[in-house]
Amino acid sequence: MGDTSRLKTEGYGGHPMNVYVHRRQPDRVATWLREAGFAVQAQFLLDVDSGAQGAILFARHRPE
């Protein structure tokens, strides 16, 4: 987690690729989802004790 972006040029197995990877704080992403009309139903932090942290957010679009 964090607040960084980087260009990934090599995929699994050394395959070439050009993909921007954006790391954002889960709370910030949840705010963006709510502002876009989604209801955040669950938020889970992964590997909080290791250096490679992540999160999963479940959101559902609210009908207008």
List keywords for this structure.
single chain, 64 residues, alpha+beta, 4 strands, 16% helix
Blueprint (SSEs and pairs):
Elements: E1 4-10, E2 16-23, H1 26-35, E3 38-46, E4 54-61
Antiparallel strand pairs: 1-2, 3-4
Tell me about this structure.
The protein is α+β, with helices and mostly antiparallel strands and 64 residues long. It has one domain (4-61). Helix content is 16%, strand content 50%. The protein has 1 helix and 4 strands. The chain has one helix spanning 26-35; strands at 4-10, 16-23, 38-46, 54-61. The strands form 2 sheets. A two-stranded antiparallel sheet has the order 1-2. A two-stranded antiparallel ribbon has the order 3-4. The longest helix has 10 residues, at 26-35. The chain is extended, with a radius of gyration of 15 Å. The model has no long low-confidence stretch (mean pLDDT 89).
The gross shape turns out to be extended
Please, what is the average pLDDT?
A: 89
Q: Level of helix content? A: 10-25%
Low-confidence segments, given as residue ranges, are none
Strand order of the largest sheet: 1-2
Radius of gyration: 15 Å
User: Order of SSEs, N→C?
Assistant: EEHEE
How many domain units?
1
In total, the number of strands is 4
Task: Bin the strand percentage.
Answer: over 45%
The largest sheet is: 2 strands, antiparallel
What class do helices, strands and sheet pairing give? alpha+beta
Give the number of helices: 1
How widely separated are the two ends?
32 Å
